Every structure is written in structure tokens, then in C-alpha cells.
């Protein structure tokens, strides 16, 4: 179909994450990197804010405003709000680039999604204004984004610790050989911290405070120097505001069980891998990506537990969306790792 004068057709790569949504526009790069959150007036159903503006409202809204996370553990839990969020981000790009038409999109999804769940992702993207949607498993997208040699007959082990899920996969010859998806990741670490502070200090804190503790003083292994942070919340005994100081060793204790679960999942995937690929992993190591990989010392902790070299990829937060961007720029080349047959006209970028 001929595109009318003044209109442009572009392809996009989308990382539809539990914590953040990122969009890669062909020819431009990453143009959206915002929280997957919306604020809605529950009386009028009006969407008040999406993304960063909605995140600022967490824990600070009156009763008639709901903060909605449309994705839980990498799965769409609120289809209409996911569509609304995507539509908002895509229209914002269109206004910036004077675009009105999106030809095709490649979307990163967890490895364990059912066909119905995958279809809901595709439908949400199409309803948001993209002509054709293709999905790619997040570990494959992450490996592409990290520029790993996924087409070669060698093992590429990738661990993507995101917001809602941890994806563990061994990739070789352009496909996933073994994989596991674990519903323990960054958000679970924050929940662990909230529960620990409540139980140990009788203090009620919110998600933003828990995330600040996790980022500032959280670690998987003891740091070189002791860290501490003062936080404020509501005293569960008196009901009044209270400030306490929390040490890094306490945050480490809070998240230790979840970290152990991630390590055990990695171990299970290695245990069922073909021996030759295990030998490759011992030689080339394990690659970490996702926001959870930024937890201090997590690479050293996993390496020590498994006796395997562990490294964090460059720019781990954008690894998956960069992979979807590479895939959508080369649809014909990567057709075999997408779950839907390529439409010839979508190859045009």
C-alpha cells in the first residue's frame, strides 16, 4: 500500500515490563523508558497520569484515585489499561516524530506465557495502533541486545532479573535449549524489605521507600564498607510518624531467601542442559541483565555459589528493548525466533 505524502511508517521494538515499559523506534533508538503504571479516577474512569507522573503518586493519592499496574509478573492483568498505556506512549512518539503509522512491532515476553497470554500481548499492541505484532522471548531479546553470538553452536546463558520475573535461559543455534521463568525478581525484593521492616521494627513503609533501601544499601554479598540509611514511616504501635536507621546487613537478610531462589533456578537450568553446553557455560560464563542485576554484589554471589564466571552486560536495563529493536530492524533474519510468520510488507522499516 502506498503511504500518503507527509505520513511515515516505522517499526518499533517494545519491552513491556512489569516495572517499566521501553520502546525502541527504528532509526531513532530508545524513545520511551517509563514505569508501567497508570493513575485512574475510579469515579469517572478518567486516566489522570501514565508512566513517571503516575509513579510519583504512589502512596500519596486520595481514595478516589487508583494506582494501577497493568502487568503482573510479566503478564497482562488489565488489558484495557495496558492498551491505554501503549497508546499514550506511541502517540507521544508520533507527535515527536510526526509519525501516524506503525507498521510492525516486536515485543519481548516471558518464556512461560501461554498462547492466550501471548495473544493478549499481541492484541494490546495492535489495538494501540500497530499494524502487526510479533513476540520474542525475553532471554532471546536480551541475548540479542547484549550482542551475544546466539546463532553459533555455543552456549549463551542469560539471566534476566526484571521487575516481576527472572528469566533464565541457555541459548544456542538461534534458539532456546533450556529455560525457566521464576516469579521472583526486583518487586519481590522490595516486598521482602517491606515485610522485614514491618516485622523487625514495627514500621510500615511504602514501595518507594523499600526501593530506595534496595538501591542504596541493598546487596547480595557483604560490601567493602558498611552502609546504612535513615527511613521514615508509620509506627505500627503508636500510629505516629517514626524514623529509624537500617543497616545493609538487615536488607541483605530480608532479601536472602529470594536471592537463593534465583540461584537455585539458575542451577536447575544448568543441571538439565546438555553436557557440551555446560562446558561452554563454564568457559564463557553467565550473563546477567535486567534491573535486578544492578543489586550490589549479585554477580559475585552467583559466581561463588555456582563456581561459574558471571558478568553483567553493558546497560542491563535496556538490554531486552535493544534486542527487540535489533529483531524488528532485521525481521527477515530473525524470523525463526519470532512466534508468528513474518508478513513480507512488514520487513520494510
Q: Characteristics of this structure?
A:
single chain; 349 residues; alpha+beta; Nucleotidyltransferase, domain 5; Actin, Chain A, domain 4; 3 domains; five-stranded mixed beta sheet; disordered N terminus
* Uncertain parts: 1-6
Sheet having the most strands: 5 strands, mixed
So what's the overall shape?
flat
The share of residues in extended strands comes to 25-35%
Q: In terms of structural class, how would the helical and strand content be classed?
A: alpha+beta
What is the CATH topology descriptor of the largest domain? Nucleotidyltransferase, domain 5
What's the structural domain tally?
3
Strand order within the widest sheet? 3-2-1-9-10
The Cα radius of gyration reads 21 Å
CATH superfamily of the largest domain: ATPase, nucleotide binding domain
